[in-house]
Amino acid sequence: MKYAVIAPTSAGTTADPTWMTAYAQHVEACGFESLVVVEHALVMSRYSSVYPYDASGKMELADDLDIPDPLDLLAFLAGRTTTLGLATGVLVLPNHHPVVLAKRLATLDRLSGGRLRICVGMGWMKEEIEACGAPFDSRGRRADEQLQVLRELWADASPDGADHHGEFFDFDGAMSYPKPAQPGGVPLHIGGHSKAAARRAGRYGDGLQPLGVVGEELAALVKLMRTEAERAGRDPAALELSLGHLVTKIDQGRADRLAAQGADRVVLAASDTADLDRARDELSACADRLGLS
Questions:
Q1: What are the Cα distances from residue 18, in Å, to 34, 57, 207?
Q2: CA nearest 262: which of 216, 213, 222?
């Protein structure tokens, strides 16, 4: 089992270079696999979109909270750690042009020595996505093509480069270098709670991170992912499943129950505290319970 930790965005500390350096280095020292950071390019002070992971329909993050660009934050932390995995959870894929994103991700993976893992989502805030220039209603079809473009640009190109002719993106002879350090490119996981997310993970992804899904619904999504992978001629057993829990609550018994559900990784939400000593103590205690230290 691998254990990742989500940086405590709500604490308002993720744009503090001193705080984040100390936090990331402690996550690494405790033996966790990776540090996960979130994305919102914009947060609207007024929105009609419904946040699907809270009964209120509103997300818990304040409108004016510091939410730094996740890839720039991970690049910063890559230079201050040595073995720690660097991950997103989630990168809002419709906000990004895949040609530019392919270069950014490949560069970060190369410069970090192959430590990058990306979990992408389709996004729920229509106002944010449309402000970034993408149509909200077609974001699913667009995402499928975006994932294909990333793979094509990371692949070993022919002497003439990569060609792509799709609904949303079109190019001939594209040469995108450097390539990622990891063979096959940067791992691309799909986050979400829908059947579409599970199908997308099976067809194009390296794993699924279901959000807010448990029990029979979770089992159905995992089965759907693996079925779609097999239909696409891919190895369903190679796809990972990442499930969530809390830094302060996880223990070996709970981890074993998640493993029994098929989890390869547990993504742990940390307390929303700006007290660095408390945050580090909670990480240390968690690592001790899991036998990581």
A1: 19, 34, 33
A2: 222
Confidence of residue 63 (pLDDT cuts 50, 70, 90): confident
Tell me how far apart the alpha carbons of residues 93 and 116 are, in angstroms, rounded to a whole number: 16
Q: Cβ contacts of residue 56 below 8 Å, gap of 6+?
A: none
Sign of CA dihedral 220, 223, 229, 232: negative
Q: DSSP E strands: which ranges in 127-278?
A: 162-165, 170-174, 188-192, 207-210, 240-246, 265-269
Task: Assign 194 to helix, strand or coil.
Answer: coil
State residue 141's pLDDT score: 96
**What is the average pLDDT across 48-70?**
87
- Read off the pLDDT of residues 195-253 as tens digits, 9 standing for 90 and up: 999 999 999 999 999 988 999 999 999 999 999 999 999 999 999 999 999 999 999 99
Q: What are the backbone angles phi and psi of residue 125, rounded to the nearest 5°?
A: -90, 100
What pTM value is reported for the model? Answer: 0.94
- In the CATH hierarchy, which fold is given to the domain comprising 2-290? TIM Barrel (3.20.20)
Cα gap 185→174, rounded to integer Å: 17
Task: Give CA–CA dist 127/104, Å, rounded.
Answer: 25
- So where are the chain's domains? 2-290
Query: DSSP label at 179?
Result: P
CA 73 vs CA 20, 88, 199, 229, 269: distances in Å: 9, 10, 30, 32, 18
Map tokens 């994305």 to a residue.
39
